[in-house]
Each structure stands twice: as structure tokens, then as C-alpha cells.
Design a protein that fits this description.
Length: 234
Amino acid sequence: MTFFKETWAIIRHIALPAFFLLAASTWIDQLLASFLEASLRAESGQLQRLMIAAGFSMLNGLIFPPLILSLFLYSLLKIRKIETNFTSFASRCLEQIYIESLRAWGSTLLWGLLFIFPAFIRMFQLTLVPFVVAISKSYERGEVDALQTSSKLVSKAWLKIGLLLTGFHFVIPVLESIFFDSWRSFLETPVSAAFLVILDLFFFIILTQILFRLFIKIWPEDETLQVLATESRI
């Protein structure tokens, strides 16, 4: 199946649940930002409020992104007839995706103790962790470590992945912030905010689809990826 046909099939499969999950995450972020602003203006209890906001923000970042990515991966594997239903997919790897995401966060925080730049390098190295967990039979058999495998694979295509992440995680968000930031509030402009969530979801699907196809090209040793690679044309 070609890139655009497969992308359209993924959008049809996950658009509605992914939209609600991303909208919920965005709304929570906006509530936390308002709470943080009020905390900074408060005369007392600022530290406690900041800690509460930081805690909920971390939970938001830990819960929603892996779940949205899991929906994408399930849809992709279902289209390619590797998975049959979300229940079997979730029982097989959803818990592991969350566990490895926590490991990735912890590893990134440890690197962050050395300064900010090493933390960005570590985040970059761990970009492919969810793909390893959800797709690789080698990981499922316990033969490889998800974090180490992701680091090794990213090093094989670091320029392509770096350009992709720079474009989708920096350039596009900056442009959206410049032109559409005042329209993102669900409380003040709900219609435009919903449209921007749809736009963000579209960019997420495109980025993840490109990363998936890179992933199956740079790790031909895994038998599942050998099958997937023969079906993909970039």
C-alpha cells in the first residue's frame, strides 16, 4: 500500500478517538497553564501550586501521547493484517509501551542532570522506542532492549530523523504559535481550537507514518519488519 493510501486509511481508523484524546490533553494543558498563571500571582503557597501543576503536567505527558501513538500503531498493524483487534494489541504491548516510555523519561531526566543539551540528545535517541515495543518480535521474545535498540537505529538515520523532528516538533509548532496562538483556547474560541487540534493530529499522523517507514527500513534483521518492509513504498 502506498504512503498516501495507507495514511488515509489510518486517518479513517483512528481520527475520532485520537481527536478526543488529543483535545483532552490540550485542554488539560490549557487548564494547567491558567492554574500556573494564577499561582504566580498568588501571595502565598506558590511552591505547592507549582509542584501540583508540574505533577499533573507530567501525568498528562505520560498518559496521552503513548496512548495516541498506540492507536496509530494498532491501526497500522491492522491495515497490514498483523493485528486483528485493539484488545489483543493492548494486552500484548500497551503496558510495555507505558513501561518503556517511563524508562525513556527517566533516562532523559538523568541525561538532563548534565545540562539541557544532553537531555535533547537522549530524547532524540529514544524516538523509536514505541515502534520497537509494538512491532518487533525480537523485543517481544526479550532478545533486545527497547532503549538500546532505539539508540542504535536512530544512529543509522540520524540526519533524516533529526530533520523530521526539527520540522514537526519545532518549525511547525513555532509557526502555529506565531499565527494561531490566540485561537487555541477551548474556553474562548472552541471551534478554532478544535480545528487546530485536527491540524496537529494530521501532522502527528504524517510524522509517525514517515518514522514508521524509516524504522522498518533501517532494522531489516527483525522478521516482522522484513514482512512489513516488502509491503512499503516511500
